[in-house]
Amino acid sequence: MKAAIVRRVSTTKEVQEESLKNQQGFFEDYVKSMGWDIFDIYTETESGTKFNRKEMNRLIADAKAGRFDIILAKELSRLARNQRLAHEIKDVIETYNIHLITMDGAIDTTSGNTNMFGLYAWIYEQEAQRTSERIKMALTTRAKQGRFKGSIAPYGYELRDGRLFVKEGDTPEIVRLIFQRYIEGKGFDAIARELYESGVPTPSMVAGKSQQTIFWNGSSVRSILENPHYTGNMVQGRESTISVTNKARRTRDENELIVVEATHEPIIASDVFETVQQLIAFNRRRSFTYSEVSSRPHQNVHLFTGIIFCADCGSGFHYKRNSRGYICGRSDKHGEKACSKHRVRENELVELIRSDLQRLAGLFDDTSYYDDVRQKFIKSRTKLEKELQSCQAKIDRINNLKRKALSKYLEEEITKAQYDDYIAGQDVEIRKLQVNKGKIEAAMSTVLDSSALESVREIVASALEFKEISREVINRFIEKIEVKEDGTVRLYYRFAGTSKILNELL
């Protein structure tokens, strides 16, 4: 009789080699004592919950080909902790007249012992699920403590005792370069090509992976650009597996993420990171909305391409070299019947932006004027905060009265009809207050605090440090530009609250 031996360990680490040797020695002695021959040894290192496993697939194929007569395993869990796979193995051995013996005595088809097959498969799957949940809980606890869950640190960092530290060498500067290039207008693929041509080591090379590559690709660049760990905050738990037997991953909602701030030294400033996230989101939306505008910024060679739009039809503007300006893309493509040209020169836009920034800088330098505006923001916000507190206090007071009414009803001081009538009236008042509270909160979200004003002041100062209005300046400070038919230009600044501040200052 020819025997197929299945041996399995949970990892490929060297410490497991001894376990494999011990398993093989045990099976060799057993086969010899039974007077059988060993056909082959199938060594599993993948999880028993996975359905698609290379060695298991080979075992099933050999069984169907009739290459052996019996399968030997330490226990059923060595073959499968997945009921679906366990039952497939059961069907194969029954169909092709192959026996199965597990050394723990649970299964022995040579003596007709197969009744408990399904039960054992279910038990092992449940144990695997519990083990998985325990591991996830431990990793979640680790994440909440601000410790890194993964085994490979983000590019530019190194991992020591579960903490991230900025790595010695060039990789932190490479991360900064990647962010700088994206802000300058280069796309993921263009940045990847530049890094490859410069001989910059890839993330897989730095991590020392067995299957490393010298080629940078756009997805690696994007992964770095979207990784919030570079701001010094630990953001983990962004994905999870569906179950122990289904390894498909789902992206968790933002409110499910585990965020611990200031856990390690940042490589990228928070405002730079947020600017890049806004650019990525904007480029993604633009690629869906305007087919003539690429979502890969390296293809947008002109200063305002992909940022300037028609205020009337919404189309992106096209650059016209002969006039050194931009016209409505729909008009350019379909003629003035579709939309008028809305022509605007590039130098006019540059001067408009420069003028705005210079005027803002001048007003910020006027201390008394700046303080007046700052106090106006503070008073508006303080007034709304007081109104919100008053509204919430009224809601709390009514809820307290409702609790007292319930006590009176339970003490039989009032009838149920009296109680119901009173509660109905109070609920009407609460709904009115909640509507008013929502209006106040909405108003507060549109009122700037003094810190927002100071933030704009710093951003304007940094913008004026640039000697020219370059693509980098545009990407940092301008979200989009709209041009009306009469040539009126409206600038949408990227930093929060700018339009309100401009209305107050200019």
Automatic annotation (TrEMBL):
Residues 154-286 form the Recombinase domain. Residues 2-146 form the Resolvase/invertase-type recombinase catalytic domain. Pfam families: Recombinase (PF07508), Resolvase (PF00239), Zn_ribbon_recom (PF13408). InterPro entries: DNA_bind_recomb_sf, DNA_bind_recombinase_dom, Resolv_N, Resolvase-like_N_sf, SSR_resolvase, Zn_ribbon_recom_dom. GO terms for molecular function: DNA binding; DNA strand exchange activity. PANTHER family: DNA RECOMBINASE-RELATED, DNA-INVERTASE FROM LAMBDOID PROPHAGE. This is DNA invertase Pin-like site-specific DNA recombinase. The lineage of its organism: Bacteria, Bacillati, Bacillota, Bacilli, Bacillales.
